[in-house]
Specification:
By secondary structure, this protein is of the alpha+beta class. Helices cover 36% and strands 19% of the residues. The longest helix is centred in the middle third of the chain and has 24 residues, at 324-347. The termini are far apart.
Length: 658
């Protein structure tokens, strides 16, 4: 193989400016953030050299001044910082992407409290997005240094001359393009300073007023902040919002530096859990409202501030670059949030329960999506329960259990929290309390209104029910079952526990000719009246001190079938249709059902069609409709038929009463 030529690839500066103007900075307004950031850096550098004993001038009254001249179409940013010599201008301005900040930090490492903002050496060139000419007027802090003036019109050519500037510092003046004159307007300048520079550590003056007056409290020690400090900061960031539930202060410098404050907000019903509300800063310079890459997705609804110089940004400091460090930062944030929740659960259970309605969504979403987070919080997941627990910490909570002879008594039970008259429990506490009644089985309710009948039936027989009724719980239950494979989860309307049914009733023969029992007779009556081949009719005698307190009939949807229906609906993104295959349990111990059986028997004796037979048929439909209502709403035609049958039943009953 013959080598034809070797050499160096040459990059022409005339190709750099179009990239800067059109590709590097997509948002034109970024230029002001970059110029002010550079000004802050210059001031911090002067503090460093003063700290090192190389400068004896005043560094106690730093200031950045922004001025506009509408007639000349100019915008200027002036700082009281370190300034530059002619050689430094050539080195740091004329050599694109040569980072003076990183070189300076290496030389004066540890010499100032405030970190240097710049990292890329390209921020200054964002000026050419909006300006047709950029000028630098600067004087170095060094004794005897000659002030210099640099001018460039956006081409590779520049002019460097002496200046008569007398003060140490730098002024950058932009002559704006005709289409960029919006940045000469007072309101626009103020808006940009508030957006990007509100928390910068140097006063920024515009039109005789200091625009940035907000302290970056996230950089302070938590020990030096009160609850009111945190609340005031939240109110400033998110005005006209409900007070936050609690907050987490992030502060570490190893293996990466990160500071911040994250707040748990009260969740509104229409909240978009995928929409981020956390503000990302780099050394107090606002970068973005989007932190999706460094905040675990289950914490996206949180609000607040994250500030880190170690978060890898693209060169325009407008977006994150995802790498291993970003993932480690996300893990750190998740751990700090979990630690805060565990601390609250341990130290103030009342406050924890008070916040749980909103916190629970965060925690369960994290449980589902983050294995490490799940391990941290699985012991502090709590559920509202029907158990009558005691909130007295000196006295163990109690729950009713059945003893011999169908008697009930209170027994002590470990755990449980009572807040505002409602009881809460962990899953382990629930299983411990109920191991003698229904070992490794959990009864739960997803809709307290529609499933109230089923819940009351369980409560009447001493079966404890957990409320899993938030919008995330339908999905969450599957993950609980996966992790607790030894536990069976049954919704209260999916099947009847043996404790709810009397096994020794309805066995007497009521028709000697056919040897049919009462249960068989009632079953046959409903099957014939309803005439639904895919409907399974079961007859059971439900336990109750007062039979009228139990429902005459219940519609059950087996757990596996219901979940398959819900999963199919979720995948197809449509409302799940109620399946034709379901179970109707007719309660043979209910007085109405017994009367219905007698009415039907009378109709059989009288032979043929009769008002009694017609009424029995209508009542069967009516009982089924009432049971079905707790599982599904009627469509227009179904409601029409229900109202019509109801009127017919009432008419026949009133006819018989007259």
């Amino acid at each position: 193989m013959t080598v034809l030529e070797k050499g160096n690839i040459t990059i022409h500066t005339e190709n750099i400016f179009p990239i800067i103007k059109k590709s590097l900075y997509s948002a034109h307004e970024i230029f002001l953030r970059e110029l002010v950031s550079n000004a802050v850096d210059a001031i911090e550098k002067l503090k460093m050299v003063a700290f090192a004993g190389e400068y004896n001038g005043d560094t106690d009254n730093p200031k950045i001044t922004i001025t506009v001249d509408k007639d000349k179409k100019t915008l200027s940013v002036t700082d009281t910082g370190i300034g530059m010599t002619a050689e430094e201008v050539k080195k740091y301005i004329n050599q694109v992407a040569f980072s003076s900040a990183e070189e300076f930090v290496q030389k004066y490492q540890g010499g100032a409290d405030q970190p240097i903002i710049g990292h890329f050496g390209l921020g200054f060139y964002s000026s050419f997005i909006v300006a047709k000419t950029v000028e630098i007027d600067t004087r170095s802090y060094k004794d005897g240094a000659q002030a210099v003036h640099w001018t460039c019109d956006g081409s590779p050519e520049f002019e460097l001359t002496d200046s008569d500037r007398s003060e140490v510092g730098t002024t950058v003046t932009l002559t704006l393009q005709d289409e960029e004159t919006e940045y000469l307007e007072s309101a626009r300048v103020r808006q940009l300073v508030k957006t990007y520079c509100d928390f910068m550590p140097v006063p920024i003056e515009f039109e005789g007023e200091i625009l940035n007056q907000q302290p970056a409290i996230w950089r302070k020690s938590p020990q030096n902040l009160s609850d009111e400090d945190y609340l005031e900061f939240y109110r400033y960031l998110y005005p006209f919002q409900d007070e936050p539930l609690l907050w987490v202060h992030l502060k570490t410098d190893y293996p990466f530096e990160i500071n911040g404050i994250l707040y748990f907000p009260k969740l509104k019903p229409d909240v978009d859990v995928t929409q981020g509300n956390i503000k990302l800063f780099c050394n107090q310079v606002f970068v973005s409202d989007h932190c999706e890459e460094i905040v675990p997705k289950f914490l996206m609804p949180m609000r607040g501030v994250i500030d880190s110089p170690d978060i890898p940004l693209n060169v325009s400091r407008s977006a994150l670059q995802v790498d291993r460090k970003v993932r480690k930062i996300a893990d750190f944030i998740a751990k700090k949030v979990a630690d805060r929740l565990k601390e609250l659960y341990k130290e103030d259970k009342d406050q924890y329960v008070k916040c749980w309605k909103d916190l629970g969504t965060f925690v369960k979403f994290g449980y589902i999506n983050d294995e490490k987070f799940k391990k941290q919080v699985e012991d502090i997941l709590i559920y509202r329960t029907t158990a009558n627990l005691s909130g007295n910490t000196e006295e163990k909570p109690t729950v009713q259990v059945e003893t011999e002879g169908d008697a009930w008594q209170d027994v002590s039970a470990e755990g449980g929290i009572v807040y505002d008259g409602e009881s809460y429990t962990t899953l382990d506490e629930y299983l411990e309390r109920n191991q003698k009644r229904h070992e490794n089985r959990v009864y739960y309710c997803t809709d307290p209104a529609s499933q109230a009948t089923y819940v009351e039936l369980h409560k009447s027989q001493g079966l404890e029910v957990l409320y899993l009724d938030s919008f995330i719980d339908t999905h969450f239950i599957g993950y609980l079952e996966r992790d607790r494979s030894d536990v069976k989860f049954s919704r209260v309307d999916s099947e009847l526990d043996e404790n709810l049914v009397s096994q020794d009733k309805d066995t007497e023969i009521v028709d000697p000719n056919t040897n049919k029992t009462r249960s068989e007779q009632i079953k046959e009556l409903f099957e014939k009246a309803l005439n639904k081949p895919k409907l399974t009719v079961r007859t059971e005698s439900l336990k109750a001190d007062d039979p009228q307190g139990t429902p005459p009939a219940m519609v059950l949807l087996p757990e596996a079938m219901r979940r398959l229906r819900d999963m199919t609906a979720m995948l197809q993104q449509e409302k799940a249709e109620f399946p034709e295959e379901h179970i109707l349990v007719v309660n043979t111990s209910h007085p109405m059902i017994q009367n219905l059986a007698a009415l039907s028997q009378g109709a059989i004796v009288s032979e043929g069609s009769s008002p009694s037979a017609e009424l029995a048929n209508l009542i069967c439909h009516h009982v089924y409709d009432l049971a079905l209502m707790s599982q599904k709403g009627f469509d227009a035609e179904g409601m029409k038929q229900f109202v019509s049958r109801s009127n017919q039943v009432l008419t026949q009953l009133t006819n018989q009463a007259v």
